[in-house]
Amino acid sequence: MSTKRTKSSFRAMSTNRKLESIFLFVTGRCNAKCKMCFYAEDMDKKEKDLTFEEIKKISETAGQFNRLWVSGGEPTLREELPEIIEMFYKNNEIKDVNIPTNGLKPDRIVAWVKQIRKNCPELNINLSLSLDGFGDTHDVQRGVPGNFYKAMGTLKLIEKNFADDGRVLKNLATVITKYNETEVEDLMVWMLGRFHLSNHIIEAARGMTRDDGVKILTEPTLRALQDKVVPIYNVYGERMAEETGGFRKPIARFFYLGFIRTLYNVRATNIDHPTPWGMDCTAGETTLVIDYDGRFRACELREPLGNVKDYDCNIAKIMASDAMKQEIAAIGHGDKANCWCTHGCWITSSLVFNPRKMITQVYKGYREMKKLNRPVDISEDVLQSIERKYALDVEKLTELGVRK
Ligand code: SF4
Ligand code: SF4
Description:
Blueprint: E1 21-25, H1 40-44, H2 52-62, E2 67-71, H3 81-92, E3 96-101, H4 106-119, E4 124-130, H5 136-142, H6 147-162, E5 168-176, H7 184-194, E6 199-204, H8 219-228, H9 230-244, H10 249-270, E7 287-290, E8 295-297, E9 306-307, H11 315-319, H12 322-331, H13 344-352, H14 355-371, H15 380-389, H16 394-399
Parallel strand pairs: 1-2, 1-7, 2-3, 3-4, 4-5, 5-6
Antiparallel strand pairs: 7-8, 8-9
Helix pairs in contact: 2-3, 3-4, 4-6, 7-15, 8-10, 9-10, 10-14
């Protein structure tokens, strides 16, 4: 039996700015050492994670909101992760949860997603596995030997268990750095051909990275890469439309392609220097970030404004606090805004709350995607030539079920 993909809360436009997303860092522990990690300094402080009881208070005081973005550290290292998600589903009626993972705990991921599916039947689960390159490129960037083949095995396991489940989106995220810049296009083609994924997002490294000098993108190089991979997104757009089904097919394709292009356009204009997005960033109005130790912020890139524990973990109080009001004023609005960045989560989240901008940009983005489209060759010959080019271990890939 197959479950059709359902409408995400993300695509519901609104002018009413209220808390829509909480970014909850469920742990400060991680089993990787990524060179481009923007959170390394915070994790190195080795503060205690918020307790389950403290997170419960957060959930009980946040009211209804749509999307929980789980973050960390590595979220699968938080023992009570499924129970935490279930709590937000019951108390806050969340519609979507994002779970990023480095894929080092495959059995746990599968078991926990099954548990969440059983206990939260209406919840859309966006699993997002990190994959930065082929073989050593991925392992070096992630600081874990053998991670690439482990990630391959994890993805195949996820595909096997949730192949027909439209509530479990199987996404990939690649962070572009000096290590993988030249192989991103090949990686995207190969992943498209060897797996049946829902989406493959490319990110620019952001914030203060663990290692210096990993950020190498400029506006022209990022735009060139984004243009080259447009055909791949057209294939994902078709896949999404197929999985959506019925009369919503063309709408799903339109929004998917238009959103991706808009996000990538805004990001490209901000890669060299902050440039106005042409719409308000709604950080602090519609989003709240809670660090693993309870510090809170309007977005991941701005400074903490306090600790939830000083507000008795009461989210309603925090959102109405002077600290948050001052932060929103400091970020600014419209032409007077003074804070811009490349952060995809906030660009897409802010688009939803700027409907007029969204419709124009998404329409423009969709047309650009269609114009730049061309056929993508994912024939066996092409996939095998990529495997030879990057000296992949064919025996291992066959054993993992990645190739026949
Ligand atoms: S980027 Fe994520 S997986 Fe990598 S070290 Fe940082 S928290 Fe861990
Ligand atoms: S523009 Fe970026 S850094 Fe500034 S508030 Fe928004 S998300 Fe944060």
